[in-house]
Here is the input.
Amino acid sequence: MLHPEVTEVAPNDELFTCLSPDGVLHRETTAGGDLFVMYRDMVLSRRVDTEAIALQRQGELGLWPSMLGQEGAQVGAGRALRPRDIAFPTYREHAVAWCRGVDPVQLLGLFRGTTLGGWDPRENNFSLYTLVIGAQTLHAVGYAMGIVRDGDVGTGDPDRDRAVLVFLGDGALSEGETNEAFVWAAAQNLPIVFFCQNNQWAISAPYSVQSRVSVAQRAQGFGFRGVRVDGNDVVASHAATVDALDRARAGGGPTLIEAMTYRRNPHTTSDDDGRYRDAALTDQWSALDPIARLRTHLENSGVAEDFFAGVAAEEELLAERVRVGCRTLPDPDPASPFLHTLAEMPAELAQQLDAHLAFVAAGEEVAS
Ligand SMILES: Cc1ncc(C[n+]2csc(CCOP(=O)(O)OP(=O)(O)O)c2C)c(N)n1
Here is the structure.
């Protein structure tokens, strides 16, 4: 089913919005989406983010890329996925991971240095985090080609048709790989949705130094649809993504969604954003907070305080589980980097593994 209200905004680059910053739902969408579920998703995933920053400050994590302010874009998109669809994230999609059912403690392993992955991508159809900017767009295109070859697109059977949702930042649009991915997606009419969170900064580089046109407009040059949504509006993000995924599964080809949002925290816990941007801008964007606006809407609709209290109680339990879980993440097997690269281990690599294990054992002896 297509949702014409989203399509309308494509040609003129208008921002598609449903829920205004003061919490008024001024456009009903046909895309549905459970506002209670999405409120809870945003609150709980924000709490994971807050706890992760605190853990990094305590030396428990090496690094953390915060998503504060981007929950509306991520939850709207994450909740548009069906189980058989697959998502390819960057390293900041903590709320999408939450929507896919990835345990938040598993997210922390990569940033604690106990794993190079953290979860099995097949369990939740949620690929591993990708730190190489833009690389995941090609992985996603390859997967979408596989879906076509499996005949899982355009059959009309909702239990069979699948699509790919790939996340990228505005900075990734300056990578050759992303542009190659767009070429392939268009030329082969692939079942793929590119979801760009335009949080306006690629570390210290603003979007304005990367492009003379909007993100959404760039899709037109490759021959497919681009739409612009208010990324701090979870309802708009959800409707636009449902629409684009429906099209993709039905054989309608790719869409690029530009979710306009803002990275309210520094790029990572290692970055000093005070050196390149004005704090007043962050304050302006704080007033557009995606959680606050949905809460206002729910309160104005008569939702009982019990609901919010219930989510707040869940938050405390989750925070405790994340703190304890992080500290008790198991150390990796020292052999693991050697074991999962080649199907059969060559003799030379086996020798290196022996030497490595001897080195680790010697270190453990010294330490004990
Ligand atoms: C190929 C590559 N080049 C450079 C980097 C260094 N780098 C890490 S994050 C980043 C900025 C990415 O910005 P954007 O795509 O907008 O995503 P955001 O971090 O804002 O979510 C850069 C340049 C990298 N990781 N990979």
Summary: Residues 92, 131-133, 169-172, 199, 201-203, 263, 267 surround thiamine diphosphate (CB under 6 Å). Residues 35 and 294 are 8 Å apart (CA to CA).
